[in-house]
Write a structure and sequence with these properties.
The protein has 79 residues and is an alpha+beta fold. The protein is 25% helix and 33% strand. The termini are close together.
Length: 79
């Protein structure tokens, strides 16, 4: 498996970690699912409780338009 640290939009964290779709449109959910499938994402790991969870603005997040993000470790399947 490969890993990288990506700027994940905070508004997607509930869906990526817990599957909670609250506040997301069907199109946003489909876009996220497509990206995860195309990139072969196995797991999205948020910062641990002792790491800095402080969100910040990014003009180029991992997905979507410029927004508030948190650095997460992304685990990819190697195919």
């Amino acid at each position: 498996m490969e890993t990288s640290v990506e700027k994940v939009p905070t508004y997607l964290m509930g869906y990526l970690i817990n599957g909670d779709t609250t506040g997301l449109t069907e199109q946003e959910i489909n876009d996220v699912d497509d990206l995860l499938r195309k990139q072969g994402v196995e797991l999205v790991c948020p910062p641990s409780s002792d790491e800095n969870w402080e969100p910040y603005f990014s003009s180029c997040p991992w997905m979507g338009m410029p927004t508030e993000v948190v650095d997460c470790t992304i685990v990819y399947r190697i195919t």
